Structures are given as C-alpha cells and as structure tokens.
C-alpha cells in the first residue's frame, strides 16, 4: 500500500457517489484551513453547517482527549455518563423530555419517521400512517428519508419506494389545510429548507401547521439537523417561529464535526417506541456525547449569540453590496449564519461556477441546489474572517464577470 495519496486515489478506491474537488485539506484552525501545498482557505461552509466552532477548537479537543482515556464504546446494552449528561442538557434547553441518540441527521430523521408511524398505529390504528412533507425538502439519504424528502432526483432508480408520503408546496397554508385528514400521522418540515435553497418557513405557515396537526391529531416534526445548534441565532429555529414541535431532530453542528445525531420528543409520544422497537449500535457513544456536551456548553454562551448577530449583519451587508456591484446574485435570505444568496436570472443554474471561482480565490462557499449560494460558517468566526472572505468573493466575482464579458466579445 502506497503512503502517498492524491485526488486520483479517490477515483481508484472510493465508490463514485461523490465528486470532490482536487484540493485535499490537511489541517484547520478556527474558520481557516490549509491544503497540502499550505495554501490557506477561509471557511464559509462550516463543513455544510457542521463545524459550529470551526476547526480544532480547544474545548472540543479537551473533551475528546479526556474521554478517549476513559471509555470509547459500550453499546446500547449499557448507558454511560456522557450520554446521560448530554440528554439532560438537551431536555433542559428544549421543549423535549426524552432523547434518542444516533450517528447522523439521516438516522435521527429515520427514528422520527418510525416514531410517527408507530405512534399513529399504536394510538389510532394502521390507517393513521400518512406522512406529509414538502417539495424541495431534504431529510437524509436513507431510503425512508429520501422518500420523505421532496426532491425526486434522490429517489430515482431506487424503486419500489415506501408509500404513504405526500409532498406539498412549502409555505402554502391552503394546500396543507386541504391535505390534512385523519390518516395523517405527521407533518414533517424544516424551519428553513437548506438543500432546497435556504428558504425560511413563514411564521404563519409554521403556526398553521401546528394548529392543523392539533386539529387532526397528528405530530408536528421539525427537522433541525441544519438549522439547529445556533445557526439561526437561537439554539433551535423553532424558538423564533412561535411554534413548538412534537418531535425534533438535530445533528450536524451538535457534534461540531464529531458524528452524532439525536431525536427529541415528549414523554408521552416517546411511549410509542418501547424496548426493542428501535436501536443504534453506536448511538449515544461516549466519545461523541462528550464532544457534543462541550459544543453545547460553548454555543450557548451569550458571547456566541452576540457574535452570530454581528457577523450575520456584516455578511449580509457585504453580500448585498457584492450582489449590487456584479449582478450575479440577489439579496441574501435566511437567518443568523445560515444564509442563501439566490443567483440572478442571467446566472440561473450556475451557482457551482460561482462557488468554484471562490475556491480558486481561497474561499469555501456552498451551493443549495443549482441556483443558490449557501453560507453556513462557524458561529465564532471573526470580523476579520468575514471581511477577508468577502474580499476573496469580490475577486472571484470580478474574474467571473470579466471572463464572461471576454467570452461574449469573442
């Protein structure tokens, strides 16, 4: 086995489900990372809304190394102190009474959807099994979660698909009202559709969903895998909508880069998953829970909330100015440090070209579909990080526009 690996090695040994860039990062610090040529990049992506404390945060390193010298894994036959402490903290900070730990957001959502189905069956009968979700939603890549998600491209070729799932237009109260009936066991929604273009739910829509679920005895499930853990300015986005869900999922930023997910619910609803009905070998792993506990301690500090507000305003102001200057994208939408900039009509379908140009200038930004640039940086990024990142994006846009004019002239 060769000790030297390159981007070509990926094509040789990895299943081709991804197409990573040619760059191979090797180390990071805060909101910056460096590749094998020691070139520096500013990170506005946060590992797709995961690295809420940036790279190599000392509190996370301390928690991981201390736990690594104690217990790594036990299985769910036994519980452990880090898992219990993390579950206690999550119930103290949210509406929930009970927690189920998983390894990812997809697994957390899988647990939530299974809970909803079994809750409906147990309390009302097998007819109460319909799950309503929304077009352009994303809930994970297991077979069940891609089917609940509202993007057909993720289910093509995997038929036959699980049934009993309906997809409605997002933020359409009338459509939801018309679809609700006594067969619905759950309405599943993201407070902000991340993969779908960073599209926020309106408070009126979220409140209508809550009222309709109450009327038809259905569960309201909030997928906060991407919106949670401080990204929107509060620990979880539901706090800003005036709505409390029955079930909530969280992952991504919860571990700050260490894989962990969780499903949260009330004591009464949790009764639908008694002993033996669901499980996870690694869920509640001591290492993951120790790190997540340290992350929660950090992101709930008042200084972090203040920084999210300040850096969000700085980033939005900068993006508006660049959008007006180059005409490539419009005003940003979203909340806190989960923002999307929709491309202009002339750039429809070309968001990846913009992100690729930014990467060449040493700035990592995301896309949310073909028409939206997505920003989900660390919650503790600095004023200097934002200023320098915007300067690099400025250079990228200037190059793109100049190249476009040159091509048109030719």
UniProtKB/TrEMBL annotation:
Q: What is its main location?
A: cytoplasm
Taxonomy, superkingdom = Bacteria
Question: For this protein, what reaction is catalysed?
Answer: N(2)-acetyl-L-ornithine + 2-oxoglutarate = N-acetyl-L-glutamate 5-semialdehyde + L-glutamate
- UniProt cross-references to SUPFAM superfamilies, sorted A to Z: PLP-dependent transferases
Tell me the residues on which N6-(pyridoxal phosphate)lysine occurs: 252
Enzyme superclass (EC)? transferase
Residues holding N(2)-acetyl-L-ornithine: 141, 280
Query: What's a BP term from Gene Ontology annotated to this protein?
Result: L-arginine biosynthetic process
- Do you know which PROSITE patterns this protein is assigned to? AA_TRANSFER_CLASS_3 (PS00600)
Per the record, the pathway is:
Amino-acid biosynthesis; L-arginine biosynthesis; N(2)-acetyl-L-ornithine from L-glutamate: step 4/4
**Compartments reported by the entry:** Cytoplasm
* EC number assigned by the record: 2.6.1.11
- Binding locations of pyridoxal 5'-phosphate: 105-106, 138, 223-226, 281
Residue runs in coiled coils: none
A single cellular component GO annotation: cytoplasm
Which prosthetic group or cofactor does it need? pyridoxal 5'-phosphate
The record's family statement is: Belongs to the class-III pyridoxal-phosphate-dependent aminotransferase family. ArgD subfamily.
Its assembly, as annotated, is: Homodimer.
| Miscellaneous section | May also have succinyldiaminopimelate aminotransferase activity, thus carrying out the corresponding step in lysine biosynthesis.
Q: Which NCBIfam families does this UniProt record tie to the protein? A: arg_catab_astC (TIGR03246), argD (TIGR00707), PRK01278.1 (NF002325), PRK05093.1 (NF003468)
PANTHER family referenced in this protein's UniProt entry, alphabetically = AMINOTRANSFERASE CLASS III, SUCCINYLORNITHINE TRANSAMINASE
Designated name of the protein: Acetylornithine aminotransferase
What organism is recorded for this protein? Solimonas marina
